[in-house]
Amino acid sequence: MKLIFEKDKYGRTAFSLPKLDVPETKIELEEELLRKEDPGLPQVHELEIVRHYNELERKNHSVDSGFYPLGSCTMKYNPMLNEEMAGMFNNIHPYLDEEHIQGALELMYNLQKHLGEITGMDAITLQPAAGAHGELTGMLIVRKYIEDNGYTNKTKVILPDSAHGTNPASAKMAGFDVLEVKSGPDGRVDLEEFKKVMDDSVAAIMLTNPNTLGLFEKDILEIAKLAHEHHALLYYDGANLNAIMGKVRPGDMGFDIVHLNLHKTFSTPHGMGGPGSGPVGVKEKLKNYLPKPIVDINEDGKYFFNYDIPKSCGRLRTFYGNFGVMVRAYTYILMMGKEGLKFASEMAVLNANYLRKKLEKDFKIAFDDVCKHEFVIDGTFLKEYGVKTLDFAKRLLDYGIHPPTIYFPLIVHEAMMIEPTETESKEELDHFVEVMYKILEEAKTDPEILKEAPYNTPVRRLNETVANKQLKLRG
C-alpha cells in the first residue's frame, strides 16, 4: 500500500472554492505565529483520498470485521441503528442556547435516569470522557466527601491485586495512598486479608464485581458492611457490568459510587483509543459532590444545565461529555428494554462459560469455576512447547481473530483473558475453539510457526521493547 504522501502530484486538488465575491480582509498576525514554510500536505484528487482511507479501513481489525474477544473490554457489536441516531445530532453545538437544544438535553436527562435505575444509584453525571476518567471523578468525590465530613485521618484506598491498572493510578492522582489486598485461592478477595487492612484510615475501597478474573465476589455484602462500619465509601468499577446488567445492581450490593463504560456495556466499541464515555453515579448522600453541571428539568418542563451543586468536586472536562456515545447508549437501552438488557447479560455469561468448557480439556483455566462474562487461561503450560502467550496471540491474527487480552490480570502468569460477549453466535464461538486447538497443535509440532507470526497482517511483529523505550509518536 502506498502512503498518501507517495501519491502526491503537484497541482492536484480534491476540491475548489468559488472565486471570492466579497472584499478581501487582511489580518496582521505576529511574526512568530506565521509559518516559515508550507505544511507539506499531499496534493491528491478526492478519489485518491477516498480510496486511501477505505484501504486503511480494510487493513484494520474491528468487531464489524471479525471476532474480537478482548477480555475486560467488552468489544460488543454496535448496531447500525445507533449510528443512524447519533448522526441525527451532528449539526448541534454544545454551546448553543439551552432553548435550542431541548431535545439533546432531554436525551441526556433521560439517560441519567435510566443509568441510575440500572445501577441503583440516585444521581448521575455524564461528564467523564471514559472509564479511567470516571474513576478519577469517583475518587475526587471521595476526596471532597471526607474533607467535608472532617475525616482527616482517611488517607488510604484499598483495592484487590486483580484490579484494573487504572484503579491505583486514579486513587493516587486524587491524593490517596494505595493498599493492595490479596486474592484468595478461589480468585476472589480474601476476606481475612481484607479485614487485616481495613481500618479507620481507609477512605474508600475500589472493586469491580464480577472481578477481573470473571468471578463474582460472593462476600460483597460483608465487604460493604465492613467498609461502612469504618465510614469508608465503596466504589464500583463498572468495566464488567456487562455480566450483571439487569440481573443485580451495584447499589443493591452496597456500593456508594459507580462508574460505567458506555463504550463497553452499552455498545459503542472503543478500539483504537476512543470514543469513550464514563458516567458516574452516586448514592443520595454524595449527589452534592458531583461535577457540575448536570442536566435537570424545571417546573415548566424545560431542561437546563444545573450548576447549583454546592459541594461539587469541580468540572472534569470541556462541554458536557461525549454526546455521540450517549446517543448510542440511549438508543441501545431503549431498543433492548429491561428484559433485553437482562437477556444480554445472560447470553454474555453463557457464551463465556461455553468457551471455558470447550477449552478446559487442553488449556489451563486459571480459576476453573463458573465464570461470568470472561475467564482467564494460564498460559504457563505453553512453555513446554517453547512458546509464550504472546506467540499464541500473534498467531491468532493470521486466522482473522483479534487476540484476547494477554498478560492481564497480573496475578495470572502468561495470562490470556477471553470475553466473547453476547453478540457472537455459537458458530463463531465454535470457530474460535477450532482455531485455538489448531494453533495449540502447531505449538506442539512446529513452534517456529508461532514464534514468527503473524504472517498475514499489514505490519509483522514489532520490537515491543524498543517501541516502549523509544517512543516515536510523530512521523
TrEMBL record:
Residues 344-444 form the Glycine dehydrogenase C-terminal domain. Pfam families: GcvP2_C, GDC-P. SUPFAM superfamilies: PLP-dependent transferases (SSF53383). GO terms for biological process: glycine decarboxylation via glycine cleavage system. GO terms for cellular component: cytosol; glycine cleavage complex. CDD domains: GDC-P. GO terms for molecular function: glycine binding; glycine dehydrogenase (decarboxylating) activity; pyridoxal phosphate binding. Gene3D superfamilies: 6.20.440.10, Aspartate Aminotransferase, domain 1, Type I PLP-dependent aspartate aminotransferase-like (Major domain). It catalyses: N(6)-[(R)-lipoyl]-L-lysyl-[glycine-cleavage complex H protein] + glycine + H(+) = N(6)-[(R)-S(8)-aminomethyldihydrolipoyl]-L-lysyl-[glycine-cleavage complex H protein] + CO2. Keywords: Oxidoreductase, Pyridoxal phosphate. The keyword Oxidoreductase applies. Its EC number is 1.4.4.2. Its cofactor is pyridoxal 5'-phosphate. Residues 38-301 form the Glycine cleavage system P-protein N-terminal domain. The glycine cleavage system catalyzes the degradation of glycine. The P protein binds the alpha-amino group of glycine through its pyridoxal phosphate cofactor; CO(2) is released and the remaining methylamine moiety is then transferred to the lipoamide cofactor of the H protein. The glycine cleavage system is composed of four proteins: P, T, L and H. In this organism, the P 'protein' is a heterodimer of two subunits. Belongs to the GcvP family. C-terminal subunit subfamily. This is Probable glycine dehydrogenase (decarboxylating) subunit 2. It comes from Marinitoga hydrogenitolerans (strain DSM 16785 / JCM 12826 / AT1271). The lineage of its organism: Bacteria, Thermotogati, Thermotogota, Thermotogae, Petrotogales. The gene is gcvPB.
